[in-house]
Design brief:
Elements lengths: L7 H4 L2 H9 L17 E6 L3 E7 L11 H7 L3 E8 L4 E6 L11 H18 L4 E6 L7 E4 L5 H9 L9 H9 L7 E6 L7 H9 L4 E8 L1 H4 L5 E6 L6 E6 L1 H24 L3 E6 L4 H8 L8
Parallel strand pairs: 4-5, 4-7, 7-8, 8-11
Antiparallel strand pairs: 1-3, 2-3, 5-6, 9-10
Length: about 300
């Protein structure tokens, strides 16, 4: 396998598939009107499991009134239940050129993470869609459900090719224009947009889905193992820049990277989004399981 290609064989590796099958992902439900699924919805309506009461208001379903409470207390209240529903699960995977550079590129971990999460979602009867993006967003796989779609997802991911540079604003505009049912949007990227975090924040303002950020990182992002006089090449634009990595320059870079990490965390918190930071040099599925606290991550 070349350094910038991930094949179907990599995703269908028996050990990797075994790890994926053990991964349990439970997310809070956000959608209504789908087929029954194995997980709980936060929509409180006429389902099977009792959750709470609330006062009756005009227009509510009479069938949900608890007449026993009315007879005892003279109060008209509704019994609320949790519904079991499907959750549209949208995977937006960064396939910009910079994600597929060097040995063990971030893009490999991104595709493995996407496949792992998609596999669990399909097992829960959720619909899964794949939207690769770089300087624009593409439709690689429209929302589909069913256990049999797992290898379809693997093939779609293996067929992706690196292209362009990261442009969150343009990509999210395209996503918003698709008219997708509200669901969970999983953004898998290093979040290195040349326009900065401000552009990512602007890009997400029009996104009405719940969000999960999966940031691909490695140890030398914070402290690069470089020194001396260097010519650095932008792998997306081809532009070169001469840099002298003096102690002061290194300190300035490290401070800038810390601000970037803090800014991304604040952005996730402001959108009530999950943020999972995956080290691309460590096993992907093990990290997802650990970061989701034994498979549970409430958005």
């Amino acid at each position: 396998m070349s350094s910038n290609r991930l094949t179907l064989r990599d995703l269908a590796d028996p050990d990797f598939l075994a790890a994926v099958s053990r991964l349990q992902l439970f997310v809070r439900r956000v959608a209504r009107g789908g087929m029954p699924a194995e997980q709980r919805s936060l929509h409180l309506g006429g389902g099977m499991e009792f959750r709470d009461f609330r006062p009756y208001t005009p227009g509510d379903d009479f069938r949900a009134i608890d007449w026993n409470i009315y007879r005892r207390l003279g109060r008209v209240v509704l019994k609320l239940f949790e519904e079991l529903e499907d959750l549209p699960f949208y995977l937006a995977v960064d396939i910009s050129k910079s994600m597929f550079q060097g040995e063990n590129p971030r893009g490999h971990a991104a595709l493995k993470a996407a496949f792992a999460l998609a596999s669990v979602a399909l097992q829960q009867h959720d619909k899964v869609a794949v939207f690769p993006f770089s300087d624009d967003l593409e439709i690689a796989m429209r929302p589909s459900s069913g256990h049999g779609k797992q290898m379809r997802v693997a093939q779609v991911l293996a067929d992706l090719r690196p292209k362009g540079r990261t442009d969150f604003e343009r990509s999210m505009r395209r996503l918003n224009g698709l008219g997708l049912r509200r669901g969970l949007l999983v953004l898998i990227s290093d979040f290195f947009d040349a326009a900065g975090l401000e552009a990512i924040e602007r890009a997400l303002k029009g996104v009405r889905h719940r969000l999960l950020f999966i940031q691909l990182v490695r140890a030398d992002d914070a402290r690069p193992g470089l020194e001396g006089d260097l010519r650095l090449l932008d792998c997306e634009t081809g532009q070169a820049r001469d840099v002298s990595l003096t102690p002061s320059v290194r300190a300035a870079y490290e401070a800038s990277y810390r601000r970037f990490q803090e800014g991304l965390l604040k952005l996730a918190q402001s959108r009530r989004a999950g943020l999972l930071r995956l080290d691309v040099d460590e096993p992907v599925v093990d990290q997802i399981a650990s970061l989701l606290a034994d498979g549970v991550h409430a958005l």
